[in-house]
């Protein structure tokens, strides 16, 4: 019996795949990649003779049947998923039929698009005394949000919000953040195809103008919306510094200067 690896392909740039993911791709007998979001370039390390298939047109049953049949034939199989497999990736729906078939499963994490988007925009998702919390979420579209998780409720924390799957619902994002007390002037960053060579675009704006800017740039898919009181901090004249590198702050690997001189 073979084994199925769920491998996070990262946000797009094949260099953002983990070394482990790359090694497994090179060793695999069969790779099923989510072609709507994962670049085929991520399969460039596959050995010759490896069966490579795009799952774009397949439904869940066809996907799991493909994985099961390859694994039952004794193959090492990879399901290559965008970003991290544990975020909006239908992971458990695919794992359950494999469990039922007695096939071994392992998951390899990936760089999620929220992290890639913050990185390319040179933004920090947390800042001392601004916010120390990141909420990964989406707004309600065809998938209903569980009770207590509407954006208006989550946004009341005034923490960083990384909003997936919602670029066509920017109007709703705007409405819910305003309802939660965010200002019209609150900075927003939208990153389209973060890390994709030649395709990445960063759109900056405020709650009141980001929708118009995205429309003007024709951005209506594969985009991350980041709303955060930390945005734009690179240009701030002053800010609270992290304790981690503070010379007066001791931690496990370094004593504070005061203590050293005492
Ligand atoms: N598992 C993925 C998310 C899959 S849901 C991850 O961890 O990133 C698909 C959503 O992810 C898209 O609607 C978009 O909001 C976001 N996304 C995926 N790739 C992206 C990229 N390269 N740049 C910006 N957003 C991306």
The overall pLDDT average reads 93
Poorly predicted residue ranges = none
Question: Count of DSSP E strands?
Answer: 10
CATH fold-type name of the largest domain: Methyltransferase, Cobalt-precorrin-4 Transmethylase, Domain 2
Overall 3D shape? globular
> What is the number of domains?
2
Task: Provide structural commentary.
- This protein has 262 residues and is an alpha/beta fold.
- It folds into 2 domains: 106 residues, Cobalt-precorrin-4 Transmethylase, domain 1 (3-Layer(aba) Sandwich); 123 residues, Tetrapyrrole methylase, C-terminal domain (Methyltransferase, Cobalt-precorrin-4 Transmethylase, Domain 2), CATH 3.30.950.
- 25% of the residues lie in helices and 20% in strands.
- It contains 8 helices and 10 strands.
- A 5-stranded parallel sheet has the order 3-2-4-1-5, sandwiched between helices.
- A hairpin with an 8-residue loop joins β8 and β9.
- It starts with a strand and ends with a helix.
- The site of S-adenosyl-L-homocysteine has 22 residues, from α4 and β10.
Summarize the structure.
With 262 residues, the protein is α/β, with parallel strands linked by helices. The protein has helices at 19-27, 60-72, 91-100, 113-120, 151-154, 170-179, 210-216, 257-261, and strands at residues 3-8, 30-33, 51-54, 76-81, 104-108, 134-138, 160-164, 187-192, 201-206, 223-227.
């Amino acid at each position: 019996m073979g084994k199925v690896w769920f491998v996070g392909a990262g946000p797009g740039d094949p260099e953002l795949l983990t070394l482990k993911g790359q090694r497994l791709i090179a060793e695999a007998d069969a790779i099923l990649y989510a072609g709507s979001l994962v670049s085929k370039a991520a399969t460039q390390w596959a050995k010759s003779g490896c069966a490579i298939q795009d799952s774009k047109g397949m439904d869940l049953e066809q996907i799991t049947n493909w994985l099961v049949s390859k694994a039952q034939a004794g193959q090492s199989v990879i399901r290559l998923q965008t970003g991290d497999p544990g975020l909006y990736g239908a992971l458990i729906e695919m794992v359950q039929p494999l469990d039922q078939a007695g096939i071994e499963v392992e998951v390899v994490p990936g760089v999620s698009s929220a992290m890639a988007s913050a990185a390319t925009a040179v933004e920090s998702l947390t800042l001392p005394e601004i916010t120390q919390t990141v909420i990964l979420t989406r707004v309600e579209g065809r998938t209903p949000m569980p009770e207590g998780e509407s954006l208006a409720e989550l946004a009341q924390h005034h923490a960083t919000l990384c909003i997936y799957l919602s670029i066509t619902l920017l109007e709703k994002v705007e409405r819910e953040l305003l309802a939660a007390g965010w200002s019209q002037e609150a900075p927003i960053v939208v990153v389209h195809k973060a890390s994709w060579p030649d395709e990445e675009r960063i759109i900056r704006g405020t709650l009141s103008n980001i929708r118009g800017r995205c429309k003007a740039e024709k951005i209506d898919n594969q985009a991350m919306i980041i709303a955060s009181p930390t945005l734009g901090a690179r240009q701030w004249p002053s800010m609270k510094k992290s304790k981690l590198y503070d010379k007066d702050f001791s931690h496990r690997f370094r004593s504070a200067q005061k203590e050293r001189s005492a």
